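Entry type: protein chain
Record version: 2
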Amino acid sequence: MGRTKTEFTEEQYQMTDDYIIVSAEYRTTTEKMGTLRGRFTQIWKKVEDSYVIIYDIFRET
């Protein structure tokens, strides 16, 4: 990919005591592959004093 730059838009956050759900659109510009665009969703779960990703999905548009 070479050098990359990623920008996020349309970010949405939802939070409960034990979970965070993050979704957004992204645009990554790369030296070798051009521009990649898509959308992602992540679910983070609280484990003791930190959060871990338990679900991570993206699709290119």
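Comment: The chain has one domain: 4-60.
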